[in-house]
Design a protein that fits this description.
The protein has two domains: 208 residues, P-loop containing nucleotide triphosphate hydrolases (Rossmann fold, 3-Layer(aba) Sandwich); 222 residues, Rossmann fold (3-Layer(aba) Sandwich). Helix content is 42%, strand content 15%. Helix 2 packs parallel to helix 3. The strands form three sheets. The protein has a seven-stranded parallel beta sheet, with helices on both faces. The chain has a six-stranded parallel beta sheet with strand order 8-13-12-9-11-10, with helices on both faces. A two-stranded antiparallel sheet has the order 14-15. The longest helix has 22 residues. It starts with 9 loop residues before the first helix and ends in an 8-residue tail after the last strand. The chain is an alpha/beta fold and 443 residues long. Strand 10, helix 13 and strand 11 form a beta-alpha-beta unit.
């Protein structure tokens, strides 16, 4: 099937062609015809399946087909709620890309930045508003946003809204919009709480289910490393010697842990940055841009900040800390292996995370292969890589971090050589599995 067969108007088809869209994804193929008929939908589809276009295209087409009097001020007719700033920004860009030359005004509002610019945009008039619940509630309470004319309402990533405690705000917002509307609810998973919410929000919805996230995990190559908590950073540095880890998203459990890890990676000369809730929106956006442009090799993120990150060709996901819930593990895996592409994920498990690992294995209904008794160095030609790195460093003035990284690389060379001669430097079996070798530490 092609987009031409979905009864999409020519201006949008041209915009899709310009963006490089060739054939609709399964969620687009199923959802667009239903939404063009004006029906509500309840769709289970995770990020990376093309769901934004699945609801954006029908909304844009419906707005374009409406009569609009010249000079009449625009009013908000479509509201899209997203759980995070990053996801909200990406939805805004998608709406703008698909509605080129259609005179449809789209803006986004979220917290973490000054609301002044958002106030100005609202006063000028909009067709489509994308918002995070917290900032939208603030502006509503100040009387700066009116939702009386909403015809199209989208609740995106509803399960994450639930996890982040936004459902109460969502219900308040919904009470302020007209009951006669078209509603679209998207969620990677449909637990009981989301199903109850759907029953309250939707009117005779069409249920659409794209490949469950758990099934998509099968397509991602997974590896498990048993490692003591204090040796996780050494193991991460060890893995990063492999040049195949080109673009790596690392998950930590806490904001403090993300900052600490970035500081350690930078001390080894690894280009990295962190995104989490304590970072300003500008800092988060800058880190994302640098990472997408591959000027950063490693992006360290907490789960909330990483939600909605859309990165093409992400080579690896690393669970530096295992997540508290198995559903979150599935969402993390979904960051790689996007849209049918291959991906690889490494998980680090310390002794106190064993119960989390058991819950994950039970949830995904598959064992994660354990890397046992083999250091990653034995699987790659590390000597060649180290020589290249040292050669690059010797042709540039050495900063303190570069000197430290060179020292680490040289110690790695010695370590690889000694490892072949000394069995004592291999991993040893402990109560928490195969512990990462204690003898290999930072120089």
């Amino acid at each position: 099937m092609t987009f031409d067969q979905l009864n999409i108007i020519t201006p949008i088809l041209k915009a899709l062609a310009f963006e490089g869209y060739v054939t609709p994804s399964p969620i687009q193929e199923q959802a667009i015809p239903v939404l063009l008929e004006g029906k509500d939908i309840l769709a289970s589809a995770q990020t990376g399946t093309g769901k934004t276009a699945a609801f954006a295209i029908p909304i844009i087409q419906a707005l374009y087909n409406q009569e609009h009097k010249q000079g009449q001020k625009k009013v908000i007719q479509a509201l899209i709620l997203a759980p995070t700033r990053e996801l909200a920004e990406q939805i805004k860009e998608s709406f703008r890309n698909y509605s080129k030359d259609l005179n449809i005004k789209t803006e986004v509002i979220y917290g973490g930045v000054s609301q002044k610019g958002q106030e100005i945009a609202l006063k000028k008039g909009l067709d489509v508003l994308i918002a995070t619940p917290g900032r939208l509630m603030d502006l509503m309470n100040q009387g700066l946003v009116r939702l009386d004319d909403i015809k199209y309402f989208v609740l995106d990533e509803a399960d994450r809204m639930l996890d982040m405690g936004f459902i109460h705000d969502v219900k308040k917002i919904v009470s302020s919009i007209p009951k006669t509307r078209q509603t679209m609810l998207f969620s990677a998973t449909i637990p009981k709480e989301i199903l109850k919410l759907a029953n309250d929000l939707l009117d005779q919805p069409v249920r659409i289910e794209v490949t469950p996230p758990e099934a998509m995990v099968d397509k991602i190559k997974q590896s498990l490393y048993y490692v003591s908590k204090k040796d996780k950073t050494s193991l991460l540095i060890d893995l990063l010697v492999n040049p195949k880890l080109e673009s790596v998203l690392v998950f930590t459990r806490t904001k403090h842990g993300a900052n600490k890890l970035v500081k350690e990676l930078l001390s080894f000369g690894v280009k990295s940055d962190a995104i989490h809730g304590n970072k300003s929106q500008n800092s988060r956006q800058k880190a994302l841009v640098e990472f997408k442009a591959k000027r950063l090799r490693v992006l360290v993120a907490t789960d909330i900040a990483a939600r909605g990150i859309d990165i093409d060709e992400l080579s690896h996901v690393i669970n530096y800390d295992l997540p508290e819930t198995p559903e979150t593990y599935v969402h993390r895996m979904g960051r790689t292996g996007r849209a049918g592409m291959s991906g690889e994920a490494f998980s680090f498990c310390s002794h106190d995370e064993k119960n989390l690992l058991q819950a994950i294995v039970k949830h995904i209904k598959m064992d994660i292969p354990v890397v046992e008794n083999k250091l990653f160095h034995e699987n790659i030609n590390v000597m060649t890589k180290v020589k290249q790195v040292v050669s690059q460093i010797t042709h540039k003035p050495k900063s303190s971090s570069q000197k430290k990284f060179q020292g680490v690389q040289m110690s790695q060379m010695k370590y690889v050589s000694d490892n072949k001669k000394n069995d004592q430097k291999k991993q040893t079996k402990t109560s928490d599995g195969y512990r990462y070798n204690k003898n290999y530490k930072k120089a």
